[in-house]
């Protein structure tokens, strides 16, 4: 199961990287088209869709690599059962919020598909297409938070809170 979950997180991260390449391509296409005096409609919109896709798809991988920003002001002062209780409470809240975020993201994409919503820009993209990446990203984040919650419950979760990265 661990290999499957890690593959899911890594797959979402690779997809996020591809979307970042998509952002780059849209920006380059926009620049080149202006320099050569032709217009490609929708490049700004597609760059935005790709950026949103990259951001949402990278969430779970970032969480699992301990790269999310955590406020450990109180947590750093606690030890033993109190620290574990606060971790479980925090992860429970995160599971709930991520679950709600995933549910409503999936629902939004589904409703956009049902109602044939299209973007207001001149490209008239069906909105469910870019919204799918938000739905997938939030669903994978929800799974990652459940994973973290279960690991904490079993006492197998590794926190690198003392290994903060310092940039000079």
TrEMBL record:
<keyword id="KW-0997">Cell inner membrane</keyword>
<feature type="transmembrane region" description="Helical">
    <location>
        <begin position="12"/>
        <end position="33"/>
    </location>
</feature>
<comment type="similarity">
    <text>Belongs to the TRAP transporter small permease family.</text>
</comment>
<feature type="transmembrane region" description="Helical">
    <location>
        <begin position="45"/>
        <end position="64"/>
    </location>
</feature>
<dbReference type="Pfam" id="PF04290">
    <property type="entry name" value="DctQ"/>
</dbReference>
<keyword id="KW-0472">Membrane</keyword>
<comment type="subunit">
    <text>The complex comprises the extracytoplasmic solute receptor protein and the two transmembrane proteins.</text>
</comment>
<feature type="domain" description="Tripartite ATP-independent periplasmic transporters DctQ component">
    <location>
        <begin position="24"/>
        <end position="154"/>
    </location>
</feature>
<dbReference type="InterPro" id="IPR055348">
    <property type="entry name" value="DctQ"/>
</dbReference>
<keyword id="KW-0813">Transport</keyword>
<protein>
    <recommendedName>
        <fullName>TRAP transporter small permease protein</fullName>
    </recommendedName>
</protein>
<feature type="transmembrane region" description="Helical">
    <location>
        <begin position="127"/>
        <end position="146"/>
    </location>
</feature>
<comment type="function">
    <text>Part of the tripartite ATP-independent periplasmic (TRAP) transport system.</text>
</comment>
<dbReference type="InterPro" id="IPR007387">
    <property type="entry name" value="TRAP_DctQ"/>
</dbReference>
<keyword id="KW-0812">Transmembrane</keyword>
<keyword id="KW-1133">Transmembrane helix</keyword>
<feature type="transmembrane region" description="Helical">
    <location>
        <begin position="85"/>
        <end position="107"/>
    </location>
</feature>
<keyword id="KW-1003">Cell membrane</keyword>
